[in-house]
Design goal:
alpha+beta; two-stranded antiparallel sheet; globular
Length: about 270
C-alpha cells in the first residue's frame, strides 16, 4: 500500500492578518528606540547596517500593499505561473541582489525611519481591511493569493526581528505568537517538501512536528531518528543564520539516529 499523501497545512487567515500587523507594530516600536549609534552598527548580514535592516523590513510589508494596488490580472490575460506556498522558500534566493540594492536605496532615501514605518503601517492596515483572501497578487517570485502571501510575510518579519535582536543586544523586540508559529510551520513543512519521507521526525515545540527523509517508515513508539530544537534556532538553521554543526556543538538542538543529520539539507532559504 502506498504511503498516505500528506495534507497541506492550512492557516487561519484572520489570525495571520492580525499576526502580520502585530509583528510589524512590535518592530516599529523597537526601531523607534534605536540610537544613531545603534543604527550604524553591523548586522552580520553582508554589509548591511542596522539602519539598512530596519528599512528592509518595511519592504517586505509594503510589497503586500503595492501588489494589492496593482490591477488584478483579468481572466483573458496571461498570468505568471502560480507559486505554491511551500515552494516560496526555495525561490527567494534568486532575488537577493535586487533586494540588497533596493534596501540600500530605501535606507538612504528615508532618514526618518519612524515616518517610513508609519506610512507602511497605515497602507497595509487600510488595504487588509478590504482585500479578500483570494485576491491574486502578481509578485516578483510568482502569482500568489493574498492569504498565502501573508503567510510568507510572517517569515520575513520574524526572521528579521531575530536579526535585529541579535544585532542590537538588549533590544528584545517581542515575537507575536501567531507570527512565530506560522513562520516555524511554513519552514518545517518546506523541509518535508525538500526531503520527502517518514524516517526522521523533526520536532520544534510547541509549534511544529514534521516527518521527512527517505528510509524505513516509523509506525509506533519513539521514531528511530529524531531532531528537536526551539523555534528561533530552527529559523536560523532554515535561513542559514546558523550552521547545523554549530547548533549541535552549542547544544541548541538534539539529533539522534543515523538519518538525523540534516546538515546537508539546510539552509532552505539562501
Amino acid at each position: 500500500m502506498p504511503p498516505a499523501k500528506k495534507r497541506t497545512r492550512t492557516y487561519d487567515s484572520a489570525k495571520i492578518r492580525a499576526a502580520v500587523l502585530a509583528q510589524f507594530g512590535h518592530v516599529r516600536e523597537g526601531v523607534r528606540a534605536l540610537t544613531d549609534e545603534q543604527l550604524a552598527g553591523a548586522t552580520g548580514l553582508g554589509d548591511w547596517s542596522v539602519r539598512d535592516l530596519a528599512a528592509h523590513i518595511t519592504m517586505g510589508v509594503e510589497a503586500v500593499s503595492r501588489n494589492i494596488d496593482r490591477p488584478e490580472p483579468a481572466q483573458q490575460e496571461p498570468v505568471p505561473p502560480k507559486l505554491a506556498l511551500l515552494d516560496w522558500p526555495f525561490v527567494t534566493a534568486a532575488r537577493a541582489g535586487d533586494i540588497a540594492d533596493g534596501t540600500r536605496q530605501l535606507a538612504a532615501g528615508n532618514p526618518d525611519l519612524d515616518a517610513l514605518y508609519a506610512r507602511t503601517e497605515q497602507r497595509i492596515t487600510e488595504r487588509l481591511a478590504t482585500a479578500p483572501d483570494d485576491r491574486l497578487l502578481v509578485t516578483r517570485t510568482g502569482a500568489m493569493t493574498l492569504a498565502d502571501y501573508l503567510v510568507t510575510r510572517t517569515v520575513e518579519l520574524v526572521v528579521h526581528t531575530d536579526d535585529l535582536n541579535r544585532a542590537v543586544p538588549g533590544l528584545d523586540i517581542p515575537y507575536d505568537r501567531q507570527a512565530l508559529a506560522a513562520c516555524t510551520r511554513l519552514l518545517a513543512d518546506a523541509l518535508a517538501v525538500k526531503a520527502p519521507g517518514a524516517s526522521t521526525e523533526v520536532r520544534i515545540p510547541p509549534y511544529a512536528v514534521v516527518q521527512c527523509v527517505e528510509g524505513p517508515r516509523h509506525t509506533r513508539g519513539t521514531p528511530p531518528n529524531v531532531v528537536e530544537t526551539d523555534p528561533l534556532t530552527w529559523l536560523r538553521l532554515a535561513t542559514g543564520r546558523v550552521a547545523w554543526k554549530a547548533a549541535l556543538e552549542d547544544a541548541k538542538l538534539s539529533a539522534s539516529g543515523e538519518r538525523a543529520d540534516l546538515g546537508g539539507l539546510l539552509p532552505l532559504m539562501g
